[in-house]
Design brief:
single chain; about 250 residues; mainly beta; four-stranded antiparallel sheet; about 0% helix; about 35% strand
Amino acid sequence: MHFSTTLLLSSVFSFSLALPADFDPKDLGQLPQPGRLNVSYSGITYSQLSGSLGEYEKPDPTSKPFTIKAYNSEHPKTVHEMDITASNGKFWVGNATGSYCPRAVTDCPVGNVTALQITKEDGADLVVTLREGQSIRVNERAELVFANKSVPMPDFPRRPKEPKFALSPNPIPPLPGVSAFIYSGVGKASGYLACPIAPEGPWQVFAEVRWILDSYVPGGDKSQCIGIDALATNYTSPTPAAYQYA
């Protein structure tokens, strides 16, 4: 184991975010309606927009929020000890966190840090203000991905009904007491692969599962990927890391 484009959806909401060329605004999910509400979430109290549904109950987490870094001491000049970030629906090493916040929100998080936490039933969520939340999965191409909870994830026969994420204590002998963010679903992965988009990165993160194919990774050659562990560090801010990752 080793953006800034301005998108105007209406006269009420506008957003500044980095978007891919083929972005569909429907992928953002439903936006909350105006109104203010204080919500307590895993010890975090913050203000957010609320709508006619009243208080949105986020999943009960089983871990405190944390950030993750890539670890592979054999690659000190590339991925080693670089942040693993969420952007454009995927996870990356050597790429900036992608996020946005509606202008109607007066206390937007900075949104430049990717924070996540383990939830019940071995799931994992991003730590966001967005009422519906954002979940993390491994998709049919072994990519580590995220999406709003209202967006259905593609299904495939080899994936378990529920994701299998966890924090594993003492995953690396040279670093006692350090936890790792692991995936143990289909394929029995515990580490990840960082696969380069270009020779100098960034690197896209995949679960290191047995069934990953060359055609799944950028460049079509998984031998160019670097095996990494995802080491967890506590996220200590009293507020969510982003309104929504994008």
